[in-house]
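If I may wish for something, please sit down with the protein I am sending here and say whether tokens and residues agree:
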Amino acid sequence: FAFIELVAEILISSCSMIVRRYFGWHGSKAGFMIASLGALVLPAHFIVERESRFYSERRILKASIIFTFGAILLICNYEGLVLDCVGQTMKHVESRNEMVKRLKSILKHSSKHGEFPYDWGAGVFVYIIALSAIFIGSIIMEGVNTSLMSKAVP
């Protein structure tokens, strides 16, 4: 149960820093997005309550874990990862080759202040969808976990 609360707290705490760093948003936009995530809590609990009538809690929990793991894979900055790996490789390669020189210039121009962009231009959309999915998945896990604990604890 504490792990699920920790995930929600990490998402909410890191959101403003990430959107400022990658997207240039100010605190008011980040706050509005966090408030929008908070507004999803009650509908998520209603969905868990309704679906628990038809499916077992363990099945909902498994589906929520898979859903959250998929969203975690989606939120990763693959463009930055690829550019970072190529950049690390280019450090150790002789720069006499023309292709190597072109790759180094691409890496130099693609990073803004030493920071790579977020996922090929679709970063804002990808980040908001993945963040919402992770948050909803953790809220669903919290509801199912609370339901299972209420049955186990007298």
